[in-house]
C-alpha cells in the first residue's frame, strides 16, 4: 500500500460510533417548559414515581425533601458514605456490591453524577438496577460553577451538554431532557451570589427576565442549548 493512501477513506468503526451518537442525540428531546420551575418538574415526576413504581432507589438521598410523597417501604436510599444522613444502603454506585440488580422500577439520581469518579459506570449500574420499563429521574449540571470543598470531601469532576447526556443515556429506550434556566441567566448563575441572593429572594422571575431580554438582543443558533443543566426523564 502506498504511504500516501494511509488514512484515506472513512474509518468504519469510528463512523458507526459517530452515527450511533448522532442517533442518540436526535431521539433525545429537549423540553424548555420547566426551565424556570424545577420544583414543579420534580413534584410532577416524583409523584408519578410514587404512584406507579413499587420500589424506588434514591441515589445520594437527593429526594430527602420529598420523602413524604412515597409510602413507607416504597423507597430506599443509597450513599457512598454516611454523609451525616443515614442511608439504607451504603454502596458505591459506580461499582455496587450490595445493591440488587433488577430490584427497582424507579431510580432518582439528582446532582450526584458530577461528583462520582466514573459517571458512565454509574449509569451502566443504574441501568442494571432497573427493571425493564423502569424510570430514571436524573439531574446533571452543564454551565455551572465548580462546587467541591477545598478538603475534597467530595469532588466535582463532570459537566454534560445535551449531546453528552444523550450518549450517557444511549441504552435507555426513551429519553427526555428538561432544561434549567436559559443562555443568559446561566451566565449570571455561574456566580454563587446570583442564586444565593437573587433567586433565593425573588425566585426565578429575574432569570426569566434576563433571558427574555438577552434573546431579544443577541439570539443565535444553539442558544437554547446554553443552559445551567438538565433534568432527564428516561425509561429502560
Model description:
By secondary structure, the protein is an alpha/beta fold. The chain has a single domain (25-182, 224-235), classed as 3-Layer(aba) Sandwich (Rossmann fold), CATH 3.40.50.150. Helices cover 33% and strands 20% of the residues. The chain is built from 7 helices and 8 strands. It has helices at residues 12-26, 38-52, 119-129, 162-168, 185-189, 192-202, 205-218, and strands at 28-31, 56-59, 75-79, 89-90, 104-110, 130-141, 174-180, 229-235. The protein has an 8-stranded mixed β-sheet, sandwiched between helices. Helix 3 (119-129) links the parallel strand 5 (104-110) and strand 6. The mean pLDDT is 93.
In short:
The chain has 236 residues and is of the alpha/beta class.
Biggest sheet, spatial arrangement of strands: 1-7-8-6-5-2-3-4
Average pLDDT works out at 93
- The CATH superfamily name is Vaccinia Virus protein VP39
Instruction: Give the C-level CATH assignment.
Output: Alpha Beta
CATH topology: Rossmann fold
Radius of gyration: 20 Å
Q: Please state the second-level CATH architecture.
A: 3-Layer(aba) Sandwich
Count the DSSP helices. Answer: 7
Overall form: globular
Order of helices and strands: HEHEEEEHEHEHHHE
Structural class: alpha/beta
| Main sheet makeup | 8 strands, mixed
Whole-number total of structural domains: 1
Low-confidence stretches: none
